[in-house]
Write a structure and sequence with these properties.
The structure holds two protein chains of two kinds. Chain A is mainly beta. Chain A has no helices and eleven strands. In chain B, strands 2, 4, 5, 9, 10 and 11 form a six-stranded mixed β-sheet that branches. The chains are: A mainly beta, B mainly beta.
Chain lengths: 118, 113
Amino acid sequence: GAVVSQHPSRVICKSGTSVKIECRSLDFQATTMFWYRQFPKQSLMLMATSNEGSKATYEQGVEKDKFLINHASLTLSTLTVTSAHPEDSSFYICSARGLAVSFADTQYFGPGTRLTVL
Amino acid sequence: ELKVEQNPLFLSMQEGKNYTIYCNYSTTSDRLYWYRQDPGKSLESLFVLLSNGAVKQEGRLMASLDTKARLSTLHITAAVHDLSATYFCAVDMSRTSYDKVIFGPGTSLSVIP
């Protein structure tokens, strides 16, 4: 099956610092990667959609200058939370949709990154 | 704007009982997914429903999709404690002009002895 990894799994940082989260598709090429945020006891909210080599498409209300997304290759997307504040503390989950037909029917989710901003 | 609703949001059921979780959505889509999430964990894919009338079963769970009614159901048969988790349905818009998947609010299931 398709595997998506995220790194780090957990990060604690001070307010004002920037944090980078990596999302990798390990055994397939991903045309599209998605970044979600989940607050405690809430659903997943789509933040942005990224396609390899092009600018990410952000959902309404998500600050693109604060949440920088780079999709440098068909297997790697990164999310950088710039100047993080306590309200950015959340569970960030990425997912990937495959290039090949066998991986295109659904999204494959990473294990998530728990960000805590002090 | 696409809306995805789930009913109920909270469900407490006894072991051995049957129950159905409903997922309604507001716009045309023929792809819907069900996921399970345990506390502190990411999502586990349960079912991928790709067409009208699709029905899939795995163990004590069965999912169906009616695209005309814009309704999917997740039926639980003879619940056991291990099924306690939060269940999300998600509607795939990738065949429209929006390549995105929108999640429902989730149903928190607690199976009690």
